[in-house]
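Blackboard transcription, Thursday session:
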Amino acid sequence: QKEVEQDPGPLSVPEGAIVSLNCTYSNSAFQYFMWYRQYSRKGPELLMYTYSSGNKEDGRFTAQVDKSSKYISLFIRDSQPSDSATYLCVSQGGSEKLVFGKGTKLTVNP
Amino acid sequence: DADVTQTPRNRITKTGKRIMLECSQTKGHDRMYWYRQDPGLGLRLIYYSFDVKDINKGEISDGYSVSRQAQAKFSLSLESAIPNQTALYFCATSDSGPQETQYFGPGTRLLVL
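(Written on the board underneath:)
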């Protein structure tokens, strides 16, 4: 079992929709949880990170971690066509190497 | 100018050929990584280096080798390319710290015929 599991989608939504992207992880040692965004033909880039459990909000984006259930979520409010990308769920623990989920491809249709 | 550059951006080669992918960074980071990305498999770590004298295997190092020529340069070699090494290859860098942000290059698209 891969340490970070993520539904690959693809996910297609209309502009303005609320998007929910989700991951689960298996390693209790993970403490940092990140979302990377990857546009087509580009390298991934950090979108948000959270430490331990809780919520973190940045504009239209909210990252949520529930360590009791080992569940990671990213919510996008008022989604825009420019949000169309692949979203990678990432965890980090004591080894300091990042563990990537396979990514969820999101398309926001105008 | 881009902080992490990769050359070449695209490469077509034949089975059995030796090829080298190069990565340079201007971020001043000590840590550098090589990943490959395949549809349905996500990003997988090939090799990583925490400083110039440190080289470590990742989860899929077989068939690959690396060289850390300087803090800013990290090369990936395929000694004898095979078709299942066809993939998108990314170099990344990071600073050390409890929460590590990796900065990725634009990728090299490799096709092995």
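Lecturer's comment: The interface with chain A takes residues 4, 40-43, 45, 48, 90, 92, 96, 98-107 of chain B (CB under 8 Å).
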